Amino acid sequence: MGILDLPAELLGRIIDFSVPDDFENLLLTCHALFACGSSSIPTHNARRKHFRHISFNSYHDEDSRLSFLRNIAAEPVAAHYVQSADLRGRIMVTPSLHEVPPGFRLRKGCVGASMDDVEKLVAASQFSHLLDTGAETWTCQAEDGFSASTFLLTLLTNVRQLTLPRVWPEVPDVNTQPWQLLTAMMRQSHERRMTSPLCQLRSLRALAPVHYDSRVGLSSLSAFLAMHDLEELYATSCVAIDDYTGIPFTWIYPDLKSPLRKIEFVSCCMDSSQLSNLLANTPNLQSFRYSHQEKWHTCGHDWNAGAFAAAIGRYCGHQLTDLALTVDGLSGEIVTGIVSLQEFTCLERAELDVALFAGPSPESGEMAGLEACGPSKGFQKWSPAMVPKLTEILPSSTKNFQLFDSSLNDYSEVACSLLKDFSAGRDWLLSDLEEVVLRKRILDNPENPTGAKIRARVMDQARKVGVEYRSGLALQPIWRRAFGEKCGVVLDLN
User: What does R_g of the chain's alpha carbons equal in angstroms?
Assistant: First the structure.
C-alpha cells in the first residue's frame, strides 16, 4: 500500500509528525500531500517565526526560565522550532551591538500552561529516569534557574546556536541532576537520533560578566565541549588554573574528543598546563583567540605567555590558521615571553599583544614574576634588546599581522626590537604578508609629554620599516571588538 492509499485522517497524522523538520519537504512531494497538509501551513509558519529565536536577553523581558517551560508545556512542538536560544536573562546591552532577531521574548504575564502541565512535561521527558525525585519535586527545585535551564535544553532538538545563562555554576557537581542531564544529553548527541537534544548544536556562547571578580571554571562547560557537532565556542571569564586561587580543568571523557574548530576566550585566566588538557583533546581546531585577565584573589597575577603560546603550537601548530593572544588586565609580569611562532606552519592571521614578548625566553630557564629566577648557565639575563625580530618570529605563511599595545608600561624598546630590520627581511622571509599594523591604545593623558614621546619613538621606528602605525583612546584588538559585536556584549579594556 502506498502512502497516498492511506485514509485521510492517517495521512494527516503522518504530516503532523513531520513537523517541523520534514513538513515542507513532505508537502512538496506531490499535489495530494500538499492539499492534505495545506491547512497546517499557516500554523507552521507562525510557529517558525515566533519560536525560531528565543531570547531572555532583552531588558523588557522577565527573567524566568520556568515561565518559558510553561509556554512549552502548553505547546510542546514549539521547542522543535527553536534554532537559536539566548538564555542569558536580564542584561543591559547596547542595542546597536545586539539586534535580537525576531522571535520569542518572554513578557510579564505570559505564563502559558499551569504548573501541572509542566510536571507532565517533565514526567514525559526521555530523561525522566534521571529525575529520581519525581516531576512534582523537581519542578519545585527548578525555581533555582539552573535546573530549569538544563531541563529546557532537553527539549531543544534543533537548536544550532546556544547562549548559556549569565549566572552559571563555577564548578560542576557531577552528582547532581542538572549535571547528569547535561552528560546524558552529550552522550546522546553522539547517537545521531532525531530526538536527541542539542544534536545539531554548532555554536556555544558562555558569556559571564567581564571583570576581576567574575569567573567560571572551564570545567563547568565540559559536557558541551564534547557535543558531537559543536564547532564554535565563545566564552568570557573562564578560569583554568590549578592552584589555590584557580579552578583546574581536566578532560573527563577519555573515549571522546571535542569537535571544536574555533575557540574565542575573552578576559579569561588560564595557564599552559590546563590549556593543554583542552587542546590535546581538540584535534580539529583551526582558530584560537584568547585575552588574559587576572582574576579574583590575584589568580593569574603573573602569566607565562611563552609557555602558553608553546602549548598552542605543540597541539595545533600544524593546522591553526588564525591566532590571537592579547592582555586585558595583568598587574603582574610576563613570566616568559614569546620568541618564535615557527611551529605554526599554516598560520595566516595573527594578532598579538606587545606585552607577550616582554619576558625571557622559555629556553633560558629565567623567569620573571613572583617566582622569579635567573637564567641557566650559558644564557644572559633578559633585556628588551634581546627580543627577536618579527621576521624571525612569524612563520612564512603569515598574511595578516596585527600588533597591539594597551599597557601603561613602557614597551617601546620591546616594540622597536620587534620592528628591527623588518623592511629588509619582509620580502625574503614573509613574502605572503599582505598587511602589518601596530596599534597603540592611549590610556594616559594624550597630552602627557612622556607618553607622547614614547609613542613618537615607536611611530617613527614603525614608519621607517614600512609598518602602519595607529593610536587612539578607544582602540581595542580587532578580534575583541568583533567578539563584542557578534555576541551582543559591551567589552572594554580597563
Answer: 26
Q: What is the pLDDT along the chain (494 residues), one digit of tens a residue?
A: 566 666 766 776 776 666 677 667 767 678 767 777 776 777 777 778 888 898 875 444 444 566 677 778 888 888 888 999 998 875 444 333 344 445 544 433 444 567 778 788 888 888 888 775 555 555 555 555 677 788 889 999 999 999 998 888 888 887 888 899 999 999 999 998 878 999 999 999 999 999 999 999 999 999 999 999 999 999 999 999 998 889 999 999 999 999 999 999 999 999 999 999 999 999 999 999 999 999 989 999 999 999 999 999 999 999 999 999 999 999 999 999 999 999 999 999 999 999 999 999 999 999 999 999 999 999 999 999 999 999 999 999 999 999 999 887 889 999 999 999 999 999 999 999 999 999 999 877 776 777 788 889 999 999 999 999 999 888 999 999 999 999 987 665 54
**Grid coordinates given for 22:** 520534514
Question: What span, in angstroms and rounded, lies between the C-alpha atoms of 358 and 384?
Answer: 7
What is the C-alpha to C-alpha distance for residues 435 and 160, in angstroms, rounded to an integer? 34
Vertex 468: Cα angle to 467 and 471 (nearest 5): 130
Decide: 411 and 355 in contact? Cβ < 8 Å: yes
9: Cβ contacts below 8 Å, ≥ 6 apart? none
Q: At what angle do helices 177-189 and 146-153 cross, to 10 degrees?
A: 20
Grid coordinates in use for 246?
584557580
d(CA 469, CA 66): 52
Tell me the pTM. Answer: 0.89
The span from the CA of 430 to the CA of 135, in Å, is: 63
Q: Which residues contact 286 (CB under 8 A, 6 or more apart)?
A: 261, 262, 319, 320, 321, 322
Cα separation, 177 vs 493, in Å, equals 38
The span from the CA of 111 to the CA of 73, in Å, is 10
Q: Which residue type does 304 have?
A: N
Spatial CA neighbour of 492 closest among 409, 406, 408 = 406
C-alpha cell at 363: 629556553
